[in-house]
Amino acid sequence: MVIDLNADLGEGFGIWRLGDDMALLDVVTSANIACGFHAGDPLTIRRTCAAAVDRGVMIGAQVSYRDLAGFGRREMEVDPEELCAEVLYQLAAVDGIARAMGGRVSYVKPHGALYNRICRDPEQADAVVEAVADYDRDLPLLTLPGSAVHEIAAREGVATVTEAFADRAYTPAGTLLPRRSPGAVLHDPAAVAARAVRMATARTVTAVDGSQVPVDARSICVHGDTPDAVLLARAVRDGLVAAGVTLKAFT
């Protein structure tokens, strides 16, 4: 059993700090680094990339809608060509900084509303996949099992990697419960760790209605902006290791 553990990092902006990036980089195997459109600024990106390289943590470009005010969590109607260009812009920027720090972007993970939208919207999914293919067809895309991204990416020769979310509630359809719904984000370290272990070993997750949903995931995400994110991530890592799961990046 081999699982990657990823988290969203580099989400500060200017004088505002969000989460403890340095502590989380000591826990995770992959870092989804904000590209400046929902969070992050050049200095934050540079520091986070440098710290990831120092720790041997893989760097992913966390591309987003252009939505700083809404933290990328507001769904948007964007012309496909414009969306493709904006994703390409973000990817190239973070990869350039990562390379200057001695690393590189190894994968792409859309953020927030864009992540959820392209799971069900072939038009926006096609725009994101096109941007990745234009930049580097060898970069895999992280997405949910059952996402529309898989078929579109396969057609374009772009690999996909499935992931699961240890600290998010699931619907019976296998999608993430919207954040506006009560109980959408989980905060109890023991419960989140047990959930991650079940995802990695039994390949299932308990949905909000009590049903068991299959989750064939190669990577598990713990969000970096939630309260006690470091505590949650450490609990997940310790739980996985205790269950005999090997933690290893997928790239």
UniProtKB/TrEMBL annotation:
The top EC class is hydrolase
The domain of life for this entry's organism is Bacteria
Substrates-to-products reaction catalysed: 5-oxo-L-proline + ATP + 2 H2O = L-glutamate + ADP + phosphate + H(+)
An example of a GO molecular function for this protein is: 5-oxoprolinase (ATP-hydrolyzing) activity
Which keywords accompany this UniProt record? ATP-binding, Hydrolase, Nucleotide-binding
**EC id:** 3.5.2.9
Question: A Gene Ontology biological process annotation?
Answer: carbohydrate metabolic process
Give the record's subunit note: Forms a complex composed of PxpA, PxpB and PxpC.
The entry's family comment says: Belongs to the LamB/PxpA family.
**NCBIfam families in UniProt:** PRK05406.1-3, PRK05406.1-5
Report the protein's function.
Answer: Catalyzes the cleavage of 5-oxoproline to form L-glutamate coupled to the hydrolysis of ATP to ADP and inorganic phosphate.
Report the protein name in the record: 5-oxoprolinase subunit A
Protein's organism? Streptosporangium canum
- Specify the taxonomic lineage: Bacteria, Bacillati, Actinomycetota, Actinomycetes, Streptosporangiales
